[in-house]
Write a structure and sequence with these properties.
alpha/beta; single chain; TIM Barrel; 14 strands; 11 helices; twelve-stranded mixed beta sheet
Length: 329
């Protein structure tokens, strides 16, 4: 097991397939983009499948989430999913994407074995989308969402970040739209993971702000805390249910004590937390010929040293050098 000194066991693996992205979201990266990882530094398809296999067969991982950057930009994505679906035991697999390109790939990903998707969409207004992402791709995302739902990649979860002066008034509108289209909406607090290091707590739309806005239009009933388990989102029944809305309050309501995640970057580094300052290099171990059992021991040692929490409220908190696009969501 991937056990840490606080008794937490990691059974959920987040695998970043690329640091590249075809959007330039203001809360993630600068308009000109970033210096992407060079191809030789990236894990190959074979290396990704092998490491997922180590996690599933030897370390007790049960769920795998493919992330980026934008994972749909990874040429071998469908093959990676298909090969991971053939592992024993078979992990549950999902994908976090901006939805661009999902219209043409949803069916193939389902056939390969993908179970569901999370799609990022912060606004229903095309002009606001363009301001937030610096791209005119709003319709592409909407079509991708529909394709995912029609392909059966359900529940389709929509992730939204609210930003002051841009979309901070859209929470009720987004929820009404998600209910209409049978998507499960999750609001995510903006985290200090932007490449520009421009995050400031005082400028953040908090979970409390989101809930206050939603309650102007909907009745929200808290879901039983036991049903949440290790999930990052607190959930509420909307108008008595059965549909729900979630809020991931990483900053104001941290859930570190129940964290069950381990992370693998696109260049083969294990991270114990989004905000970790240390990494453990599994790519080097693979490329020098380490056996699966040795790789597993390196992974276990890394997770044993996981800190109690992200420490965002600690005066000594330092934002990670890597931005979200290079870590994997």
């Amino acid at each position: 097991m991937l056990l840490d000194t606080y008794g937490r066991v990691a059974t959920d693996l987040r695998v970043s397939l690329t640091d590249r992205c075809n959007l330039r979201c203001t809360y993630c990266m600068p308009e000109e983009g970033l210096q992407w990882l060079e191809k030789p530094r990236l894990l190959t398809d074979d290396e990704i499948v092998r490491l997922v296999g180590v996690a599933v067969r030897l370390l007790g991982v049960e769920e795998v989430r493919f992330t980026g950057g934008e994972p749909l930009l990874r040429p071998g994505l469908t093959g990676i999913v298909e090969r991971c679906a053939a592992l024993e035991p078979r992990p549950r697999m999902s994908l976090t994407t901006n939805g661009i390109g999902l219209e043409r790939t949803a069916g193939a990903l389902r056939d390969a074995g993908l179970d569901r998707v999370n799609v990022s969409l912060d606004t229903l207004r095309p002009e606001v989308f363009q301001r937030m992402t610096r791209r005119k791709r709003h319709d592409d995302v909407l079509r991708g969402l529909r394709a995912a739902r029609d392909a059966g990649l359900t529940p389709v979860k929509v992730n939204a970040v609210l930003m002051p002066g841009l979309n901070d008034d859209e929470a009720p509108e987004l929820l009404a739209w998600a209910l209409e289209h049978d998507y499960e909406l999750r609001f995510i607090e903006q985290m200090p993971l932007d490449a520009q290091h421009g995050w400031h707590r005082e400028g953040m739309i908090t979970a409390g702000d989101v809930l206050k806005s939603l309650r102007t239009r909907f009745t929200l009933t808290p879901e039983d805390a036991e049903q949440r388990g290790s999930a990052p989102a607190e959930r509420w029944l909307v108008d008595g249910g059965p549909q729900r809305v979630g809020v991931i309050a990483s900053v104001t309501r941290p859930f570190c004590s129940a964290c069950d995640r381990t992370r693998l970057t696109a260049d083969g580094q294990v991270r114990t937390c989004l905000f970790a300052e240390e990494e453990t290099d599994l790519r080097e171990a693979l490329r020098r010929g380490a056996a699966d059992e040795e790789v597993a021991e390196l992974w276990k040692t890394a997770m044993w040293g996981k800190k109690a929490g992200a420490g965002i409220d600690d005066p000594s908190f330092v934002q990670p050098a890597r931005p979200m696009s290079a870590i994997g969501g």
